[in-house]
Amino acid sequence: MFFRATAVTGIGRRPVWENTPRIAWLDSGCDNTYIIRVTPKTLRDELKMAKPFKSVEEEALLSIARTAALIEHASAEAFKPFSLTTTQYNVLRILRGAGSEGLCRNEVGQRLVTKVPDVTRLLDRMESAGLISRERGAADRRYVATRITDKGLKLLDKIDRELPAMHARQLGHVSPKRLRELVAILEEIRNTR
Question: What are the start-end ranges of the E strands in the chain?
Fold first, then answer.
């Protein structure tokens, strides 16, 4: 299948070949990372579907899922240099927001963007890495407060400096007005369960 190739430069895109875009064969069937991005025109093209979607709802749901998967993959790659997963990053942000009081395991789990089956093991790994600390309550021994450590705060500060560029790479080509519309639509979908 033919695809037009474009290169990503900063926030916008430009054709790989000067001012005259050309059609070129690109291998889109392997998992290698390319310098150029293959941009099929529709989700049907991307999924190599021969038949149309059964409904616009099906297309919308698959488009949301596909987009989320691509953003999640890009985020995972961006956090690799920091030896973090996106979920671990989310935990650090949650605990930074909680302040010095910290949160119990259940509260951390409830606030995660992406739910995980075993929050305890996630916190165990982060504690082993020195990013968080846990302490049993003096009044109630069942309550274990989880707090971010200085090491975790320093790592977050480092990530926070690079995050705007990552967001710009992922969404900078969409206008702020369209992004606000997208946010409103997604909120409507989540709140109509």
Answer: 3-9, 12-15, 23-24, 36-38, 132-136, 144-148
